[in-house]
Amino acid sequence: MRLTTSTVEVPLRSSFTAAHGTMDVRPLMLVALADADGLVGHGEAAPLQSYDGVATADVRAALEDCRGELAAAVLGDVVDPDARAELLARCERRAVLPQALAAIDLALWDLAGRAQGEPVWRLLGASAAPHVAVNWTIGAPDRSGAAREAQWAYDAGYRTVKLKVGTGDDAGRVAAVRAVAAGRTMAIRLDANGAWSPEEALRWLEVLAPAGIELCEEPVAGAEAIEELTPAAPIPLAIDESAVAPVALMRRCAAAICLKVTRCGGITGTIATARRARELGYEVILTSTFDGPLGIAAAVHAAAALAPDRACGLATLALFAGRPNPLPVEHGMITAPPGPGLGDGLAAWY
Predict the structure, then answer these.
(1) Is 162 tagged catalytic?
(2) Is 164 annotated as catalytic?
(3) Beta partners for residue 34, in sequence order
(4) Is 194 left (phi over 0), alpha (psi -120 to 50) or beta?
(5) One of 260, 263, 301, 310 is an active-site residue; which one?
(6) Which of 236, 257, 306, 347 is least surrounded by Cβ atoms within 10 Å, i.e. has the fewest?
């Protein structure tokens, strides 16, 4: 197999602010694996340095460490599930970074699907293309903008919206969104990205809870800190950034866990992590860090095997400027794209 990589920087329609910083441009890495006959599978690496501390250059170096293992592989190794799992395990030992492993895993699944003329969701054992309920993330930093976004999301068919908190005027923006959602079947979710101290988190959650909050993702930093906060919190909590901490999969630290394909090492790792999380009693939510269409499609395919428990944070492709949205949201749902592998035409987006 021949490995090639390329990097693209995609601008956002407007600046997006979270507790870990403000983003205007999203760097993404496209990975291609080609067999001797020219059949190609594509994957994506989506590190976000302000969020996970991993730079694109780090991922590129990790992928280079896997080049020898991939060069020795043949298409038969990709099509056979056991051989593919062994190849991926060898790459994992060399790559170390889950973001690099995710790119390889996605490319292997895409290549396997294309070789067999089947979509990945069918290779995962599903009988029908998955339809995944998704939430809209409100990025407006002011009350009126948040209210406008909430109204737009409701009109567009979303029944869950998420607000970033810990960024200023949290109470005002939550109240503005609740005013739009009043009397409607519309859930409000919060995401603090670990910005609050335990004392701040408890105080703010008590202030915001009367607005009718579905749950709050990562109110404080660290799985153990979230675990300590959970009994006193007036609303359910979810771990997000801390989902990769070893303790998060040793015991149940919160009501829900947010899993990202890029941080779990791809579709394979996401499914394995989700199954372990369910054994511990977590609800499972699939989310992204502004992934490109290959990453979003991978999560949608994985959902066929997982059936997420709540609306997923995958509706982010519409936030990119100058790019079409190959995975549009209809009635609050994303459907797996047509075609074999991860889906037709996704690599052209990059």
Answers:
(1) no
(2) yes
(3) 2, 40
(4) left
(5) 260
(6) 236
